[in-house]
Structure formats: structure tokens, C-alpha cells
From TrEMBL:
Domain Aminoacyl-tRNA synthetase class I anticodon-binding: 374-445
Name assigned to this protein: Glutamate--tRNA ligase
Any one Gene Ontology molecular-function term assigned to this protein's record: tRNA binding
Originating organism: Methylocystis bryophila
Domain of life: Bacteria
Similarity remark: Belongs to the class-I aminoacyl-tRNA synthetase family. Glutamate--tRNA ligase type 1 subfamily.
Function: Catalyzes the attachment of glutamate to tRNA(Glu) in a two-step reaction: glutamate is first activated by ATP to form Glu-AMP and then transferred to the acceptor end of tRNA(Glu).
Length: 448
């Protein structure tokens, strides 16, 4: 079996949101599980709205999620291929010029609806003579070009939805080329899928109707080439039940990153939400791929609640080893012999990775101790063992304090935590105390 080739084809007209990331993750993880290739293909033929800046930001967002395309392609650089395909369709009589304005088309649609008819394009342009077309062009009208659909039912076996079909007689002939000569999504997408030998197209269920049109285009442009297999997954909706849009910026990957959520938490929630798999924290995308299966994706909309990211980020951080985070800690000077035991001590108490920086200050920097019951703290300071300290020092020290003062439970431990860390709660002091060291501990307990 040939290794599959999949693609993620965003339009660089804005920052991608969690719904777009879901499509990218589905494709990338499918490639991982099937030992295939993952292509990032920018659908940037809309020159008025597409920008290089947005394309770069999309690459940054995907890299943050851990997605590394095997190939990056820009449709704006492939115009010659689309021109050749358009010429082929014109020769076949499948691409025809239309001169109606948007206002005229809207008026026709309203008339059809008023008569109880479906608002399907009536193919009036096919009735124009050569003289009619020349007259319209002389008037300054420039044509847009439609693909002539065959009035048949197109069927395919969807890898998520099962048997699917669309009656193309109920569809308008799609516009493939705008009045200004630029291409809409449909034709470049099919041409590139053929040229890149894409084997599987995994995308949202809002593209189901497009599939019927594209299958007819595959047949017209490359009848001998096997069309890709399709999989249309359920869409993410917001916790309020609304659809996601790049225009609103809701749940953009950039905003989730800026809020401090872990990339692996975002990836796991975006991928596993709306499937029969339980949403869980993972250490890597390879581990996430082990829980990914198109057959497990539900047909119902998948509700994405950002508040779930808080707990998932906490759990994801707790799973990470020191090697997983070494390069993230180093720029904050969390290095040296204390770095690994420090990470292992604090990782289970982090809501965000940035919280680790505050705990490093507790270990290595200056804090404002919270001192309650100064007499008790003075007794505790007097009982501080001599260094070297290890994981048993806390236990030996607090047992000695208990024997001397008779205190136990919260009355024993809480004043010590407040003085040593300046916080009400946090990592186990058995692990933190050796990192704080004798000099800082004595000073925070009230020593000179």
C-alpha cells in the first residue's frame, strides 16, 4: 500500500482558531499513524485578503502545536497549473463564461424562492451567443467562469460518515474563476491534490457538498487517477454553541498560547473532543496519535469549552519530565544541579508553566516570608539540622519540632510553609526544603 499523503490547506486571511487546528491535527496525526506525509498548503489565491504575514503566523501556530509539515506549498506560486486546468475544462465545454452581476444573481434567487423553487443557477449564460458575449464585454462586463456539473448523484465511502452521496442536480454550477481572473478555492484545490498525489482529504463536515463538486472535477481533469478518499469530521463549536470564525478571533491559537495554556493540552482537547476517546493529558503528539482514530469520531457537533484547558494544562505539566522542559527552563536561568529536582518538585502544582518561575524565586531568590507565631518559628529554627540535606530532612526536622513543641497537623506545618515559601499552599516541602537550603530557611524563619 502506498504511504498516504494528506494536506492542511488554510487560507492566510487571519489567525487560525482551534477549529482550524483540529483539521490540521487530524491530518498530521493520521499521517503519523499511517506512516504518511503531511503537507501544509496555503490557499492564498484570494490576493485581496491573503497576506504573507498571516501565512507566517499560521506556521508559528502550527509549530507551537508541534506540527511539522513535510512540505509547504503556496498556491499563489502555482498559477500556471491552474491556467492549464482551466484551459482543459474549457476545451471540454465544462467551463463557461457568465456575465451576471451579483445584484442580478441575487434578484433571480429571490424570484426563485418566491416561486417555491430552489435557488439554483439557471444556466442562462449557456444560452448566450458569441455575439451576446461580445456585446456584454464591449459594455465593460467581465465574465466569471462556472463549472458545468453533470446532473447525477455522486457517491463515496466517507471514512467517518460512511456511505455518502450528493445529488448534483440540486446544486448550482460553482464559480471557479472570478471576474478579475483569480481562482476560487475549488479548482486550485483539485489541481493541487492531483499534482501532489493527495490520497486522503480529511476536513470538516461543512465541506461535504464541496466533495461532490470536487469529485466531478477530479473525473474531468484526471479520469484515470484515483480520487482521494474523504473523511468529514464533526465541527467544534464554542461552549455557547456557536460556530468558530477567524474573523471574530474567538479561540485563536495565538490567544490560547498567550493565555499560557500548554500546546499539548490544546492539541489533546482539540483532537479528542467529540470522539469516543476520553480527553486526556499526553506527553507528546506521538502519544496523542495512539489515541486518535477516525473511526472514533462522532457525527455530532463537538463542544469546545476553554475552561477544560485549565485542568488539562495542569495535568499535562504534571506529566512532563525534566528532559521535556529543559530547553524551556534554561532561558529563565533554571539550570544547574538544582534544575531537575526543582522541576520534579513543582510540576504537579503548576496551573501554567510560568508558575514555575515563581517557585524558582522561592528556591533561589528573595521572598517576603509570612511569619505567624514567632516563638514557634524561633524554636523551629533552633532545631534546623545541619547540611547536607536530602528528601528525608523535612521529616526528621518536623518530627523533632513535634517532639519539642507538642504541635501536630496544621498547627505544625502551616506556619512553616508560610515562612519558608510565603504561600498558603504549594509543592511538597520535603522536596523544596533541600533546594531552599539552610541559610535561606533560617533567615525566613526569623534568623539574622
Amino acid at each position: 500500500m502506498t504511504a498516504p499523503i494528506v494536506r492542511f490547506a488554510p487560507s492566510p486571511t487571519g489567525r487560525i482558531h482551534i477549529g482550524n487546528a483540529r483539521v490540521a491535527l487530524f491530518n498530521a496525526l493520521f499521517a503519523v499513524t499511517q506512516h504518511g506525509r503531511f503537507v501544509l498548503r496555503f490557499d492564498d489565491t484570494d490576493f485581496a485578503r491573503s497576506t504573507a504575514a498571516f501565512a507566517r503566523e499560521i506556521e508559528i501556530d502550527l509549530a507551537w502545536l508541534g506540527l511539522k509539515p513535510d512540505l509547504v506549498v503556496r498556491q499563489s506560486e502555482r498559477g500556471a497549473l491552474y491556467d492549464a486546468a482551466a484551459a482543459q475544462l474549457k476545451e471540454q465545454g465544462r467551463l463557461y463564461p457568465c456575465f451576471e452581476t451579483a445584484e442580478e444573481l441575487e434578484k433571480r434567487r429571490k424570484l426563485q424562492q418566491a416561486r417555491g423553487l430552489p435557488p439554483v443557477y439557471d444556466r442562462a449564460a449557456l444560452k448566450l451567443s458569441e455575439a451576446d458575449r461580445e456585446r456584454l464585454e464591449a459594455e465593460g462586463r467581465r465574465p466569471h467562469w462556472r463549472f458545468l456539473l453533470e446532473p447525477k448523484t455522486v457517491a463515496w465511502r466517507d471514512l467517518i460518515r460512511g456511505d455518502a452521496h450528493i445529488d448534483c442536480a440540486s446544486l448550482s454550477d460553482p464559480v471557479l474563476i472570478r471576474e478579475d481572473g483569480s481562482y476560487l478555492y475549488t479548482l486550485p484545490s483539485v489541481v493541487d491534490d492531483i499534482d501532489m498525489q493527495i490520497t486522503h482529504i480529511i476536513r470538516g463536515e461543512d465541506h461535504v457538498t464541496n466533495t461532490a463538486v470536487q469529485l466531478q472535477l477530479f473525473e474531468a481533469l484526471a479520469a484515470d487517477w484515483p480520487a482521494p478518499q474523504f473523511a468529514h469530521h464533526n465541527l467544534l463549536i464554542s461552549s455557547e454553541g456557536e460556530g468558530l470564525s477567524k474573523r471574530t478571533g474567538a479561540l485563536s491559537i495565538a490567544s490560547l498560547r498567550e493565555e499560557g495554556y500548554e500546546a499539548l493540552a490544546v492539541a489533546a482537547l482539540a483532537t479528542l473532543t467529540g470522539s469516543s476517546e476520553a480527553v486526556r493529558a499526553v506527553r507528546s503528539l506521538d502519544e496523542l496519535a495512539e489515541h486518535f482514530d477516525l473511526a472514533h469520531v462522532s457525527r455530532n457537533p463537538a463542544r469546545f469549552d476553554p475552561s477544560d484547558l485549565d485542568a488539562l494544562t495542569h495535568r499535562a505539566l504534571a506529566l512532563l519530565t525534566f528532559e521535556d522542559v529543559r530547553e524551556r527552563l534554561a532561558p529563565h536561568d533554571i539550570v544547574g544541579f538544582k534544575a531537575e529536582p526543582f522541576w520534579l518538585a513543582v510540576r504537579g502544582n503548576l496551573a501554567r508553566f510560568s508558575d514555575a518561575l515563581e517557585w524558582w524565586r522561592v528556591v533561589e531568590g528573595e521572598i517576603e516570608p509570612l511569619r505567624e507565631d514567632l516563638g514557634f518559628l524561633e524554636e523551629a529554627r533552633a532545631l534546623l539540622p545541619e547540611e547536607p540535606w536530602d528528601g528525608e530532612t523535612w521529616s526528621r526536622w518536623t518530627e523533632a519540632i513535634k517532639a519539642k513543641t507538642g504541635r501536630k497537623g496544621r498547627a505544625l506545618f502551616h506556619p512553616l510553609r508560610l515562612a519558608l515559601t510565603g504561600a498558603e499552599k504549594g509543592p511538597e516541602l520535603a522536596a523544596l526544603l533541600p533546594l531552599i537550603g539552610h541559610a535561606r530557611a533560617a533567615a525566613r524563619l526569623g534568623g539574622e
